[in-house]
TrEMBL record:
<dbReference type="GO" id="GO:0016853">
    <property type="term" value="F:isomerase activity"/>
</dbReference>
<dbReference type="Pfam" id="PF21621">
    <property type="entry name" value="MPI_cupin_dom"/>
</dbReference>
<dbReference type="GO" id="GO:0046872">
    <property type="term" value="F:metal ion binding"/>
</dbReference>
<protein>
    <recommendedName>
        <fullName>Phosphohexomutase</fullName>
    </recommendedName>
</protein>
<dbReference type="InterPro" id="IPR011051">
    <property type="entry name" value="RmlC_Cupin_sf"/>
</dbReference>
<dbReference type="InterPro" id="IPR049071">
    <property type="entry name" value="MPI_cupin_dom"/>
</dbReference>
<keyword id="KW-0862">Zinc</keyword>
<keyword id="KW-0479">Metal-binding</keyword>
<keyword id="KW-0413">Isomerase</keyword>
<dbReference type="InterPro" id="IPR014710">
    <property type="entry name" value="RmlC-like_jellyroll"/>
</dbReference>
<dbReference type="InterPro" id="IPR051804">
    <property type="entry name" value="Carb_Metab_Reg_Kinase/Isom"/>
</dbReference>
<feature type="domain" description="Mannose-6-phosphate isomerase cupin">
    <location>
        <begin position="258"/>
        <end position="322"/>
    </location>
</feature>
Length: 328
């Protein structure tokens, strides 16, 4: 196995619009209007639409099937001992051509009880282009009030009860499962998450989806809304979710370690062995693995199987974001 340089993997027909940022970043052709996500090294499918979202390898196999057939080489023996053949990670590029709707994701206990899944959807954003986001409620919201907002599609009330953050390029933000949020128009982020596609829509008016039918994971809103964190978060608590800034290197979100790990490095560097998704966010350089060198440039995404071992990065202006599953 060698490092795999991955092309874009953009599920079509998503319910919100994308922009030009993924295509500009990757240097590919014109962007499709409703392909706002690039699922990188994905063994996860779009909820209810398998195999959409799954990465196809150059030999035509699904990455998921290749991992199942040879998990130790892909994931490493320690990872397999802890998690089996589950990569325990999904990485995306997300380009918000419009503000995303207010939504939330279930946590592990909710997903296990109601959906029979091992993962919820805690996520994190490494910001590549500045954006305004709404994140968490500023006050306690009781279930009847939340239900009323959802039923009436009272977007003004929802957004008015949420914290607003203006994020800068380079910021890293942890979004715990359950926390309601809405990424603003113009955002471009590297998104790490637990490997599911589970979203509970609180808002859908004006978006290309029938949220009343498809916004509750097939559970009905009486059940699904129990997954939403309705607690009022203080401004200080929300600020603590905003971990690293553009000046930060190394581990950007140590508090996310139970779900995933994300590092940022600039210039020459050796990377430890283990499954990783490498996103080249700036500059040019070289990747050296197994005695072979490959050029790197901004916009590339590289899947590093565990068996590749340690790899070296060369290039003074090279900047990468390295995404990894939780440590075994």
């Amino acid at each position: 196995m060698k490092p795999l340089f991955l092309p874009a993997n953009q599920p079509a027909g998503r319910f919100y619009a994308g922009g030009r940022q993924i295509s500009d970043f990757r240097g590919t052709g014109p962007a499709a209007s409703h392909e706002p996500e690039d699922w990188v090294g994905s063994a996860t499918s779009v909820f209810g639409h398998e195999p959409v979202g799954l990465t196809v390898l150059p030999d035509g196999r699904l990455l998921r099937d290749a991992i199942d057939a040879n998990p130790v080489d892909w994931l490493g023996a320690e990872h397999v001992a802890a998690f089996g053949s589950d990569p325990a990670l999904l990485v995306k590029l997300l380009d918000a051509g419009q503000r995303l709707p207010v939504h939330a994701h279930p946590d592990v206990p909710f997903a296990a009880e109601h959906l029979g899944l091992a993962h919820g959807k805690t996520e994190a954003w490494v910001v590549l282009e500045p954006a305004r986001v709404h994140l968490g409620f500023t006050r306690d919201v009781d279930v009847d009030e939340l239900t009323g907002w959802v039923r009436a599609q009272d977007t003004d009330a929802m957004l008015g009860a949420m914290h607003v953050l203006d994020l800068d390029a380079g910021d890293a933000v942890l979004v715990p499962a359950g926390l309601p949020h809405a990424i603003g128009q113009g955002a471009f982020v590297v998104e790490l998450q637990e490997p599911t596609d589970l979203s509970i829509l609180l808002e859908w008016s004006g978006f290309e989806i029938d949220g009343a039918a498809d916004g509750h994971l097939g559970l009905g809103f009486d059940v699904a809304l129990a997954a939403v964190d309705r607690r009022g978060w203080t401004a200080e608590e929300i600020a603590r979710l905003r971990g690293a800034t553009a000046a930060s290197s190394g581990d950007l979100l140590p508090e996310a370690a139970a779900f995933f790990r994300v590092e940022r490095w600039t210039g020459a560097r050796e990377l430890d062995a283990g499954l990783a998704v490498l996103v080249v966010v700036a500059g040019d350089g070289v990747l050296v693995a197994g005695g072979e060198s490959s050029p790197l440039r901004r916009g590339q995404t590289v899947l590093l199987p565990a068996i590749v071992g340690r790899v070296a990065l060369e290039g003074a202006g090279l900047q990468v974001v390295v995404c990894r599953p939780p440590r075994p």
